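Q: Please design a sequence for this.
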């Protein structure tokens, strides 16, 4: 069963020795980000900052971060033993994704304990950090659920999109037309109507786990979150927008985004998930119409930016949820023989090869999905004898099964792609002009090439036998006599 709210989850972390209270005074201006970076790099505990400069007497005085920073915490979030292997966790998530659970609408909830409107709205009442030293401001939207609804079919989208406070009642946002809420926004622009938005801070972590995942567009994140929780979410109507939000949330910000580009404001730069900063530009703004919150609300945020030395919450979440999504995409598209998938930062797919061109079918299915906006730039396909979780095994497949002269490397130019990828020219990642970034996607087919000649002395195989395997007779002999050798 899921966690009723953020506080229940924090109690679980506390009981497992996974939560650290920071009671020394810390500065929201970069110091919180620096502390978090140090802790994340060591895969340390989740953090609750309780003494934040300028926030001793504000509406919210506490900041929680790091709740999903390790695979073991994701396992606990799913109700699994903390030692569960990532492959099993991914399979559990994959199966739950396929069985959505309808949410329940309720009339009351803790998130309505306080309702703020009009001149009393002040986003600076919340301990929002300036996370990185080159950030353009205080980023309030880092670990949250941004809720919008398709004006045509009513399907709800809950995404995770960055947002910076630009005024006490305004949040500048990176809104990419190719993403879920971007599609909604384009429809509102055509209608010349402002788009209603609600932002959820602090609830069952399963919601943001889903919001961060590029779920196929026909899936409602509320229903999928219910599936992860193994029980329905309880939702409550917003005060000023026609949207529903979790009744047990810590904080909800409601508002509208103008369809008129004249109302855009400067947003950025921001230290992004890629480990690089995203550019500053004029972007859409959420004009806040209402804030509702629990008594003594806890603000939830996270430190973006990761590399091989600096893991963060993305490092743990994305390797699980995106791998599950990718495998479900391949299954839904009828691609046979898919055994395992690891989707970030490079997509690795293990198959039982059944026909020539099998790897190309894998790549085509992934590239044609709605989840490909930020994913599947580089796809590597290997066979069942390669461990995709082992760097050495993957490198061996690349070294000895890939020959560029044999069309084992395929380029797919001019594709849509991530606007935050720093390898893309700045002019080509202008989301306002193009609606998306620009990628040349790559498939590396690291399976055995069926076009090669079969060799009789190799049992009519196209590849030589493995020289590291023992004959059956010698395997049995050595195992039988092992104790005689006196080798530990």
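A: Design:
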């Amino acid at each position: 069963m899921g966690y009723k709210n953020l506080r229940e989850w924090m109690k679980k972390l506390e009981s497992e020795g996974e939560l650290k209270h920071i009671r020394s005074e810390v500065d929201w201006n970069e110091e919180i980000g620096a502390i978090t970076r140090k802790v994340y790099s060591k895969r340390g505990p989740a953090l609750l900052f309780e003494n934040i400069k300028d926030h001793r007497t504000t509406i919210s005085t506490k900041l929680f971060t790091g709740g999903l920073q390790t695979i073991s915490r994701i396992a606990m979030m799913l109700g699994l033993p903390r030692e569960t292997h990532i492959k099993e966790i991914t399979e559990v998530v994959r199966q739950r994704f396929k069985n959505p659970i309808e949410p329940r609408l309720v009339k009351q909830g803790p998130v309505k304990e306080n309702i703020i409107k009009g001149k009393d709205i002040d986003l600076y009442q919340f301990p929002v950090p300036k996370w990185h030293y080159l950030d353009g401001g205080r980023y309030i939207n880092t670990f949250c659920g941004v809720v919008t609804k398709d004006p045509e079919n009513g399907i709800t989208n809950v995404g995770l999109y960055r947002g910076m406070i630009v005024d006490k009642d305004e949040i500048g946002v990176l809104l990419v037309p190719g993403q879920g809420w971007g599609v909604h926004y384009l429809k509102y622009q055509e209608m010349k109507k402002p788009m209603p938005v609600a932002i959820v801070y602090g609830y069952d972590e399963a919601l943001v786990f889903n919001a961060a995942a590029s779920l196929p567009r026909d899936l409602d994140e509320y229903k999928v979150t219910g599936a992860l929780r193994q029980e329905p979410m309880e939702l409550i109507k917003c005060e000023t927008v026609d949207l529903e939000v979790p009744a047990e949330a810590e904080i909800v910000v409601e508002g509208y985004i103008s369809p008129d580009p004249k109302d855009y404001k400067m947003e950025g730069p921001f230290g992004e998930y890629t480990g690089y900063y995203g550019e500053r530009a004029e972007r859409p703004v959420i004009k806040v119409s209402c804030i509702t919150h629990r008594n003594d609300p806890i603000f939830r945020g996270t430190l973006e930016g990761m590399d091989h030395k600096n893991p963060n919450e993305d490092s743990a979440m994305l390797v699980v949820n995106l791998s599950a999504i990718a495998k479900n995409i391949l299954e839904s598209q009828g691609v046979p023989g898919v055994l395992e998938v690891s989707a970030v930062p490079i997509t690795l797919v293990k198959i039982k090869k059944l026909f020539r061109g099998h790897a190309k079918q894998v790549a085509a299915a992934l590239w044609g999905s709605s989840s490909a906006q930020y994913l599947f730039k580089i796809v590597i396909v290997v066979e069942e004898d390669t461990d995709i979780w082992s760097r050495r095994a993957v490198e061996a497949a690349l070294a000895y099964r890939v020959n560029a002269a044999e069309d084992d490397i395929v380029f797919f130019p001019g594709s849509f792609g991530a606007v935050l990828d720093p390898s893309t020219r700045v002019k080509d990642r202008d989301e306002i002009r193009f609606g998306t970034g620009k990628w040349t996607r790559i498939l590396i087919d690291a399976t055995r090439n069926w076009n090669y000649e079969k060799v009789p002395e190799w049992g009519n195989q196209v590849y030589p036998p493995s020289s590291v395997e023992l004959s059956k007779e010698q395997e049995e002999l050595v195992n039988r006599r092992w104790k005689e050798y006196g080798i530990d």
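Q: Thanks. Anything notable?
A: The chain has three domains: 6-300, 333-445, 458-485. The mean pLDDT is 95.
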